[in-house]
Amino acid sequence: MPTNQAYETVFHELEQTVNALEAGDLPLEQALSHYERGMALAAQCNQLLQSAELRVQQIINGQLVSVE
């Protein structure tokens, strides 16, 4: 999956993956595949959130420096 996807797009796919797993009607191999995909999507969501948090911190720090 490209890393330039929007958080909302990745999160939506993660939700769909979790819903499929929670339904409980997948064969074992498909469930394992969905689980692996879900873990990768969760990691990507986490990375996107961390990047956003870093940007916010940089903006805050930049504003604090320019105000002083």
UniProtKB/TrEMBL annotation:
SUPFAM superfamilies (alphabetical): XseB-like
One cellular-component annotation, GO: exodeoxyribonuclease VII complex
Gene Ontology biological process: DNA catabolic process
GO molecular function: exodeoxyribonuclease VII activity
Enzyme class: hydrolase
Keywords: Cytoplasm, Exonuclease, Hydrolase, Nuclease
Reactions accelerated catalytically: Exonucleolytic cleavage in either 5'- to 3'- or 3'- to 5'-direction to yield nucleoside 5'-phosphates
Listed transmembrane segments: none
Known function: Bidirectionally degrades single-stranded DNA into large acid-insoluble oligonucleotides, which are then degraded further into small acid-soluble oligonucleotides.
Similarity comment text for this entry: Belongs to the XseB family.
Protein name per its UniProtKB record: Exodeoxyribonuclease 7 small subunit
The species this protein was found in: Herpetosiphon geysericola
